[in-house]
Amino acid sequence: MKTGAVFEAGTAGRACRFLVIAAAAFALASCSLFKPADKADEGGKGSTATAPTDEAAPSGRDVPTVRLITAQTPAVRAYRKIGAQHIYKAYANRIYKGKIPPLVYAVVVVETDIDASGKVVNVTFSRTPSHAPEVAPMIAELIKATSPLPSPGKLGGHTYVDTWLWDKSGKFQIDSLTLGQRSR
Question: How far apart are CA 140 and CA 108, in angstroms?
Fold first, then answer.
């Protein structure tokens, strides 16, 4: 009789574990159901993130203030380099020559919104250094002062992300064109 009770308890334990695992798998699966739709939306937009396209698309998102960062397609990566070259030409004396030191003063991840003509619409930051709060506003001013950037062509208006490596001297490199860092 005790063997049957142990068997029933073991079966109940396995059933309980199965339900917990099944619930966790269901939760994970339901979360990932939304991701392919987001990626399909990005792909269907032709790698643009302009407001008119978002409003015209029949979707459940009725929040026009949400900025969609353009996927890092080869065309967007190429445009990042073109934009960085434009900034480098404007600030040739501020570019850090050679490999940047191993400990950079500030690393700032910048999101630049441009329209279809290359005009800088907005500059925001994904990552700013808490120890160097003065750097992000300086970067925003540098980018806005070089507006308009070269025309993005078929990409149209979009938001692209680049990383700025800022030295204590006030000189910088942009990740798209960086020469790397020294090991010492």
Answer: 11
